[in-house]
Fold each of these.
Amino acid sequence: MYIRGSFTYKSALILTSERMRGLQAVLLQDFEELSYFATTIQKDKIMFGSLDELLSYDNFGRWKISTLNIEGRKTGGQSIEICFCSNMGLFVSFTSTAEIEYTLNDLQEITLIKKKICDYLNKCKAPYHIQSKLSWFSVSGCILVILLTLLLTGPRRSLAINFDSVEVVLLVVTCVLSSVWSVKFPSMWAKIFPPIVYCWGEEVAATDRRSKLRSNIFWGVFVAMVVGIVTTLITG
């Protein structure tokens, strides 16, 4: 008897060298042989002879890893395949970050393996996993809704009063810029909050730069909100 099935993991991941070694240790508890395959940004296929060879890969530029596959096998034709990949969506940045397919012959073993893998991937979850679910389109839409709400319900506003010219220009410019960014750079949000980070080689430095950028954006928005609130209170 063979049981074939699949399940997915849906949170953003940061895979470091240490975490990859830990994942290998988890898989080797149930499988005897592991193979590693990767696809780069420019669609080249790479087969690695071992995990050490994978982790020694430079991982930069157009040769950066976009998809990583791990295959595990054991006697009797039983196997598992983990595919780390993400598909960009419109309202959400991605639907899943890992797709796991298995062929096994024991129901209890399937349950245990699922739990082991999910528990370990939870340890690899990115600290920004909630923000990473958003897409640039949904973020732009939220900004427009908030701006329109403020214009309509501000202290000097009601639905029966027309906008003045400055507010109309501000609203139009925001709509145009948001539309252009959403169409021209649909994956911009994912570049700031990437769904999967293969954090070895040159990607280590890139991860540090993204972390500083996220921190700068957070404090910039926070300071702007504080200044806006204080200004509103002072001007009455």
Amino acid sequence: MPKEYVHKTALSEVLLTSWKETAPDVHVVTAEWPRAHAFYSSRNRLHDPLLLVETIRQTIPLLSHLAYRVPFGHQLIWDHFTYALEPGVLRTETAPTEIELRIVCSGIRRRGDTLSALTMDVEATRNGVHLGTAVARFTSHAPAVYRRLRGAYGDAAEAMARAVPLPPPVAPRRVARAQYESVVLSPTDTRNRWQLRTDTTHPVIFDHPVDHAPGMLLLEATHQAVHAVLHPLPVIPVGLSTVFARYAELDAPSWIEATVIDRTESGAEWGESGEEWGEPGTEWGEEPGEESGPASRNDYSGIIHVRVTARQHGQELFTAKVKARPLLPESRPVLSLEPDGRSSTRPPRKTDAKAGTKAGAKAGASTGFRSRPSGNPYTNTPQDLTYRPTA
């Protein structure tokens, strides 16, 4: 796949491998993930969920240029984005990972004969096994329109030259990263509040000049904020929903805040079925009948809900609601959230692991693992899990 079609200058960053239109406004795109990515690195023997997000992001310019004839030079801007995935299907293997995306496009708007907005509904599979879904809406702007829209901020080279000095990073282990260069949050004097680190020399995030903080940087900051607010509990983000309200400029600091929330604050857009959410009202690792404190933030399936908000000049850039699943083997103590947001250790409870018993079902829920269909080769067991921007 030519790198120009996915808006990358480094061929090594191109994840997509093929595209075909199977019906009007229905497309199938294939991708190949490397065993080890330079930035979206695997952890706990699982691919980074943002590798799926980046794969979907690359389909935005691909379909714009090939399927909808958007000229090169037009700016593609994210409006809103949602994803949900099955973490067990992210398991790394000894060979590159083959991904297929089925994309249905709707809400198509044009300015004259040129595309101006589009919504993509994406279903991702890995070797025929369901990996996840996503919904992305973006707008497309001709160069002259974009210059009028951005005004003094429209020149990418000048915007990058005015970028604020890079502040020090938080410890990589707090945000599930191995290297300081991969950390996009800087500590502040306020708990669970960080300054966004906008490293305009980063070879992946700033693969080419842009006039504002890229969407993938903001989503990376969101994931890192989730890891930081839940540290030392190891988790994997399994769902996210966000609307981008305005551009994150490079010449002023942006501030990221994370708050652990309960299910009732998470919003109806996640869905209300028991299969998706589990039964509410029981804290992770808590026996029925125990008092649940005001900071009980886990649903019955072990999912933790976190709200991440970014602001600049006191104005909201975006708010994301994230679902995270704990990664804990059964032999480890259960970590739970205290009312002040800190994690604490509880001794593991004795449970009957026999299939079909209530205690066995609760044991599975308390560790955050759910059974998969028998045909899924990526069955997620505790042994598997040991340890408004430019598109």
Amino acid sequence: MTRYQLVTGIACMFVLLSATADAFADADRKTIEVEHVYQLGDSDSRSEAVRMCYAEAERRALEQAGVYMESRTEISNFALKKDEVFSFTAAVLQVERLGEEVRLDGQHMSVHCRSRVTFNEQEVLDSLAYIARNPALRNELGESGREVESARRKVSEMASPAGPPADGSEMRAPVAPVAPVAPVGQGGSAGLSRSAEQEKALGSLESIKRKRDEIVRRNKELTEAGRVAVARGMTPGEVREMLGNPQARRTAERAGHAYVCERYGSLWVVFRDEAALCLRRQLEQRGIEGLCHCAGSADSFVWR
């Protein structure tokens, strides 16, 4: 079986399992809907205004979901900071766009848009606990989350120099200043127009979000594929043939044996003398043994 066939098969299996589980989880689902209004500026196109409206509606919906999850008492067991709860909750949820309408509100054209996020509370708690237990994934998503938040702030700044209103209910695009005209024959540019800057900010936000989503997707696929594919006695080459190159690697020498730990998703394969000895959920620091070993508490292992 090739790596592509294995990963694809695992992904399909989990789609089917998720669909089955959903039928029994309706009682634990929570829905958050947000309506947002964005007033068009003089240089806004309709498509740009719609994107700006949804960007803010999505931010507010995910923020409310983060506030809700932080209120759960179980969160205290995960030792996550407040910004991590918000960031990681946003990373594992999907926001649905419900539709938009362009209206004339007084003297201004406005885009009214609605977004919705629906989630199973226990599934999100499980995801947060999973991220908290895996330092590498936690760090990777933490860095990505900070990039997303920075990009969101940039989008808000483009909508209003003073930032969004305190209640988050409406954003007004500023009137675009008149750009100076370069003298004939000298060329030159006064810099990007407000519309171009807005497009750049939106593009950056969407690109960073795709990067974050890819981190979550890749980690889940590699982790589940590793659970199925890795068996005792396999060599590093055999594991790489199935899963690709490891995302991290550690080595150690003890008592005449060579230990190698390689990370795939949120799993660590521990090899001793080129043979898989155990499959771990996380590494544990233990005295002279260091990090790369197969000792420690049972709950940190898939098998050993």
Amino acid sequence: MDETTRIFGYVPFEKKSQLDKIIKNLKREFGKDIHIEKNIDHVIYQKYPEKKLVV
């Protein structure tokens, strides 16, 4: 995976207790700068490519 790749996904869950584990695993895998949207029965996550400053 290079710096121009955008990562996104959809994770369904049945129990509310699974939500914390899903979020913890996403942050562990993709880092703290991932955007997570929590819904009643699913989680949507997105990580945009890092923009590098060219001097």
